Amino acid sequence: MIFAFLAETAGDADAGAAFPPFETWHMPSQLFWLAILFMALYVALSRYILPKLSDTIEKRANRIAFGLDEAARLNNQAVEARKALELRLAEARSKARETAEKARVKSEAELASETARVDADVSKKLEAAETRIKRLRSDAMKNVEAIAVDAAEAMIGKFGVKATKAELGKAVAKALE
Amino acid sequence: MIFSPALALDPISQFKVQKWIDLRLGGFDISFTNASGFMLLGVVLVIAFFGIAARRGELVPSRLQSAAEMGFGFIADMVRSSSGEEGLKFFPFVFTLFFFILFANLIGMVPYAFTTTSHIIVTGALAMSVIVTVVVVGLLKNGLGFFKLFAPSGAPWYIYIILTPIEIISFLARPLTLALRLFANMLAGHIMLKLFAGFAVALVGAGTIYLPVALLAFGMGVALNALEFLVAGLQAYVFAILTCVYLNDALHAGDH
Known about the structure:
- The complex is a heterodimer.
- In chain A, 88% of the residues lie in helices and 0% in strands.
- By secondary structure, chain A is mostly helical.
- Chain A has one domain.
- Chain B has one domain (5-255).
- In chain B, strand 2 and strand 3 form a beta hairpin.
- The longest helix of chain B is centred in the last third of the chain and has 50 residues, at 157-206.
- In chain B, helix 2 (34-55) crosses helix 3 (63-83), helix 2 (34-55) crosses helix 4 and helix 5 (120-142) runs parallel beside helix 7 (211-251).
- Chain B starts with a helix and ends in a 5-residue tail after the last helix.
- By secondary structure, chain B is mostly helical.
- Classes of the chains: A mainly alpha, B mainly alpha.
- The interface between A and B is large, with 42 and 53 residues.
């Protein structure tokens, strides 16, 4: 459709109003200026502008790559430091547990020995006390017998009965049993 | 000159080349014309845009620098994906082509501006520069092996009787289609724009009865304007990517 239109219009060129793109007088000038301007643009872009742009882009890419590398390195460092810290923490914890265990065992042993010592002491004191009580009681009993014999002698004396001390002692001992 | 609707509607006058400065060189008329002027404007704008954007070279780019770097990356990716790493030698050429055409097309979108790419001599010269580059690079790189391009390997012998002439014709058609595609798109688009816009104005002048039709024509003009912006970018892209594809043929003629 366009070409039919163009042909028709180009045909009109003979009639006076030429179709401008098909006019020939301006073609040398168009080619001349196109060559000069296109070359100028090419030189300006390829010599100065594009290298500068690509330089900037490359520099940025390098910077980003460097930054990422640096970040990875620091991250590794942090991970390692954390591992070391955890290791030391675990070590310290086990050492603390060991120390606590040792202290516990020691204190338990101390406690046991102390208890045993105190127990022995107490039982010795108890024994001493018991023998003393026994002695006191037997002493007391002897006194009671003597008193009872005396009392019995006096009482039967009042009834006018006579008895020897030995007989009285035997009787009292029998009654007290 | 008397104003008349017919004159206002003339969609061809916008392509008229007018001398600004009369110049001659060895019998040739190399006058500085409106076409040269707008071409110069485009070149100056490309250099100014990329020059200012690239000058600082900041690690954290400004918006302008960012845009320039996007353009750089866009063309670099295009060249790399269409012609491989080897094609990057021609990156400045493709870059120059793309932005030269893009800026010429976009400047043409400004009312009363001259569209340099609407002249077949300009698009033809650009296409020839591409084809000459392709042929020279192809011959330098592959020697006579470049002509394997016309006989792709892997077909039975009798296919070549048909295939080779087709390949030769399609190769010869490349500069023609490259030139005509850009030229015809810009020409047709600007004619349509002028027609609809002029039609709208003429209808308003013709009377209030025609106002709805004028609005319709105006709406068409607006829609076409949007379309033409798309075409301006698209045709620059098509020209650049076809250049990459043709360069790929030249660089890897024996590979297929």
